[in-house]
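Regression test case RT-17, inverse folding.

Input:
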């Protein structure tokens, strides 16, 4: 049997290299998809993703909007979670502090993280949080009650946005989701509650 000619071997190597680079590119894209999507949402406010502000705005304007507060818990999370007020009327640019109350109704400590967004989705890029309990995971002891705060403002530049010219109400929505319980090390074969010496 004759060996392949040099042009055919070169072509086979080029095809193999292209296939290998395509697979490597697809794997890299799958790993980068979530961080890139999160960055895109934070930057543009896409999907109602709110912004994180480091300081208050330079001023406020006379246009008012009503901000409604929605609080939920995900399946399997025995927490009671509610805003202390259902809504508030604010001027664009006004810094506001609101409070939520959460109660762990379980007989054990539980950790949870809050997911959040605003509606209408087009106002996400104007809704700025200076401080929020949603920035970190929350740990509540058995039966613990905690008051949590959100400090926010609605950017005055929203008044110049044609898409939001008629927006009179914004809904800020949170949902707490239970975090997995820390598991025992794999090498620890002892029954729960017993120490291995």
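Golden output:
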């Amino acid at each position: 049997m004759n060996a392949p000619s040099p042009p055919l071997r070169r072509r086979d190597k080029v095809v193999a290299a292209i296939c290998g680079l395509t697979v490597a590119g697809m794997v890299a894209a799958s790993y980068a998809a979530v961080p890139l999507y999160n960055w895109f949402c934070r930057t543009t406010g896409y999907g109602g993703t709110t912004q994180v502000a480091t300081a208050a705005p330079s001023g406020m304007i006379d246009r008012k909007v009503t901000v409604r507060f929605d609080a939920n818990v995900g399946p399997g999370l025995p927490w009671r979670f509610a805003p202390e007020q259902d809504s508030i009327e604010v001027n664009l640019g006004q810094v506001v502090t609101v409070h939520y109350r959460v109660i762990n109704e379980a007989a054990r400590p539980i950790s949870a993280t809050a997911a959040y967004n605003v509606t209408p989705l087009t106002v996400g890029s104007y809704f700025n949080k200076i401080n929020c309990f949603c920035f970190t995971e929350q740990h509540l002891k058995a039966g613990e009650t905690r008051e949590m705060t959100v400090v926010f403002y609605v950017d005055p530049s929203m008044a110049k946005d044609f898409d939001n010219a008629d927006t009179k109400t914004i809904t800020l929505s949170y949902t707490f989701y239970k975090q997995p319980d820390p598991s025992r090390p794999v090498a620890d074969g002892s029954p729960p509650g017993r120490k291995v010496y």
